[in-house]
Amino acid sequence: MTTIQLTVNGRVAEATIEPRAHLADVLRDQLDLTGTHLGCEHGVCGACTLLLDGATARSCITLAVACDGAAVTTIEGLDEDEIAAELRTAFAREHALQCGYCTPGMIMSARDLVLRLDHADEQAIRVGLSGNLCRCTGYAGIVRAISAVISARRQRGIAAMVGAGRTSLGPVGSQPGATAISSMRPAATEVKLSRSAASNGLDPLEVVPAKSFDAAFTVSAAPEQVFALFGQPKILAACFPGATVTDIPAPDRIEGEIRVAIGPLSAAFRGSARIERNAANLSGRLFGTGRDQQSRTSTSGQIGWRMIPIDDGRATRVELAIGYSLTGPLAQIARDGLVRDLASRLTTTFAQNCERHINGTFSSAETIEPQRLDAFGLLLDVAWTRFTAIVRRLRRS
User: Which positions are tagged coiled coil (predicted)?
Assistant: First the structure.
């Protein structure tokens, strides 16, 4: 018997298995995730399709021991996913399911197509679904449903993600130029939410991020004041270096960009986001995607937050659960340690600006002109901090 550790739908799970056990059997028999269906058990029908390290995979022919440390997303993990929700609605509208047995795997493959196809091309959709068999519908309704979702998202300005999903045949992570599974696997400490954040309901994943971590900061203001600030997207964006909101098409949706300067390089990630707010417990979530056209780098992510009163309600601890995925050329510099350090410094700056706004010391000019995020300067700051820390350790030894 062998013990493996997986991150399943954003939660760390351990299982003791036989070396011959397949991933689908472990998910169904040990973790009670029966939404992953077993059909042919030969990797042909696609009913068992799920996401393994962000790429679609057949779990009935994937040995579980080979997935130790990997991130797995099943159909249950897409309960709150925006794309999956749009697909479910479209499937119902277009009568794209009958018995429903193939539907979980079909939704997984459809979601992959929605992420990476530039436009609703029927031939490309049919080719993409060729590994998912349906004995009931004849596929016409399924193709219409997927086409409708792709068209609607592109019309809303949500671009296809470069590098998303699978672009060639072969085992997950084996595609030319792709990152190997071993280097994509987030450590348990990176994807596991802190006990306090998990207990506050910040852990549901919307865009299935490749990396996740927690952060927190304190603001010298009442929780209600901070929560109210988080309900003003344009002002909130002005508090975050490099961010700006360009449009608010709906109360729960925003469009905007984040500009980044990395030495002589510059990038403008333009995209959209959906915001959820819960006034009852002073919490919320943001799910967004963006793309830099020049570098062809795409990003997606989520931020969950909750306001915790401290100092008898005179101050607020803001707990954050952050998840992100980055694909494209700029992803090569986004090492985990640097991202965490950069996030820490950005969070500090963001917290200071939020407090200044609440206290009335954040000028109107600053709320109009977003601060520029100079990532190169931040990287130098991170490198210097790490260097001095190493020197101090060497001196003590």
Answer: none
